[in-house]
């Protein structure tokens, strides 16, 4: 089992960052987080998540029209905002990613399998996004994941060919903990779990 300090960083003391210090996020940190995330499992090793990291003022301005009023200031001032998306044609990479079964691509090819392909892309892309946030925390970054934006506007601006579809946004950097909300309640095990 990992030690208490690691558990604190990843879970117990981890909070949603709503405001950030003016500390840059480096390419090395983003690569470190990605290289940890990519090792975690997805079904048939499909790895559909795609990431666009917005750091420059020009890139942020492209995102501005999609943001809700409540997410505008914190996103425009975060050191980096990740657009976390998923590849709607992820199956094209399965011959490389799942080499021990060369029929895997056919599981998702064609119009008749579109619904299953979309569900698999969304589910596993979301799973990878969660892994990415844990990895980002592990390399010393705070995360501010959020909805509260217009996916269609983001997709039209950043993914105009329609192959990738945005899931959610995640601001990254060093949190200004003086502006972190108190922790909200959590369910107890016995309230929402069953062991059968």
TrEMBL record:
Chain ranges of the Nitroreductase domain: 15-156
| InterPro entries according to UniProt | Nitroreductase (IPR029479), Nitroreductase-like (IPR000415), Nitroreductase_HadB/RutE (IPR050461), RutE-like (IPR023936)
Q: Which UniProt keywords apply?
A: Flavoprotein, FMN, NAD, NADP, Oxidoreductase
EC assignment: the record states 1.-.-.-
Top-level taxon in the UniProt lineage: Bacteria
Swiss-Prot/TrEMBL cofactor(s):
FMN
Q: What class of enzyme is it?
A: oxidoreductase
- Any keyword Flavoprotein? yes
List the GO molecular function terms.
Answer: oxidoreductase activity
Question: Which Pfam families does the entry link to?
Answer: Nitroreductase
Annotated NCBIfam families? PRK05365.1 (NF003768)
Please state which protein family the record places this protein in. Belongs to the nitroreductase family. HadB/RutE subfamily.
Per its record, how is this protein called by name?
A: Putative NADH dehydrogenase/NAD(P)H nitroreductase HNQ70_003362
Organism, by scientific name, is Quisquiliibacterium transsilvanicum
Provide the taxonomic classification.
Bacteria, Pseudomonadati, Pseudomonadota, Betaproteobacteria, Burkholderiales
